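Hi all, posting the design record for the shared folder.

TITLE: backbone redesign
STEP: 1 of 1
STRUCTURE INPUT:
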């Protein structure tokens, strides 16, 4: 039924749909569920290639049990603003974390990144991360050190001299450039191997092909990042907290609207 928790039978149908190569929207249509429900279910339980209905159902029961046990510690969750649904935010954080893990980010590092990216300020102190994640300061310190080395966070001091961990609009650009430079180092190393093994040998030819492929990837990455960098500093067409034009028109009550200034605003 629409709404409510997924049943084990529904999870089995999701697994069958994934095995048949169906899109999330088609699986959701067959279950009479929102597509977002199916997407969230799959992403939080291993992704489309490893989703298993029995494991997903068991994991959900375990999460429900843990929430009941940790209910008194709910104060660790940040207060929600902008009319956000706390449950929807929590579930999205799980989805985002899972996506980062599937991309190769270690679990604790992914959890820290999710906290930072979903914080409106884009920055948190170590104490705030410890409170939100309910982990040890050492775990946070290790995760931040890893992310700092990868260029995915930066450190700065606030007015109270506390160290804050920050993600800003340029972090992803810098990360892509750092990644391209790492690839370029592999290119250089591969070409050294060509000279050692001989360019006319099978091994040498293999390394040369790897070098040419990665060289193209590195150059393309840098070029694309430079071209797209301004996107990171451009507001979306509908900025947060900015009323849409249609909403602004509805605020002017009564009358025929013939003198409404919204009609020709540019």
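Okay, here is what came back for every position:
SEQUENCE:
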């Amino acid at each position: 039924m629409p709404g409510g928790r997924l049943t084990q039978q529904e999870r089995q149908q999701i697994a069958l749909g994934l095995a048949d190569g169906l899109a999330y929207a088609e699986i959701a249509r067959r279950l009479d569920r929102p597509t977002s429900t199916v997407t969230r279910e799959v992403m939080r339980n291993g992704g489309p290639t490893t989703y298993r209905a029995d494991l997903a159902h068991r994991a959900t029961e375990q999460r429900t049990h843990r929430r009941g046990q940790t209910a008194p510690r709910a104060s660790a969750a940040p207060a929600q603003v902008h009319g956000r649904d706390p449950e929807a935010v929590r579930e999205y954080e799980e989805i985002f974390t899972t996506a980062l893990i599937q991309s190769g980010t270690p679990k604790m590092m992914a959890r820290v990144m999710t906290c930072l990216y979903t914080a409106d300020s884009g920055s948190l102190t170590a104490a705030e991360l410890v409170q939100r994640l309910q982990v040890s300061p050492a775990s946070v310190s290790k995760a931040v050190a890893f992310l700092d080395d990868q260029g995915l966070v930066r450190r700065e001091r606030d007015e109270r001299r506390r160290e804050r961990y920050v993600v800003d609009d340029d972090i992803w650009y810098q990360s892509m450039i750092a990644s391209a430079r790492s690839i370029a180092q592999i290119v250089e190393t591969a070409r050294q191997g060509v000279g050692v093994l001989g360019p006319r040998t099978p091994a040498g030819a293999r390394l040369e092909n790897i070098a040419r492929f990665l060289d193209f990837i590195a150059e393309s990455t840098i070029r694309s990042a430079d071209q797209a960098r301004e996107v990171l500093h451009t507001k979306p067409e509908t900025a947060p907290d900015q009323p849409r034009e249609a909403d602004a028109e509805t605020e002017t009550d009564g009358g025929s609207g013939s003198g409404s200034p919204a009609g020709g605003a540019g």
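COMMENT: Residues 25 and 35 are 5 Å apart (CA to CA).
Let me know if anyone wants the other runs.
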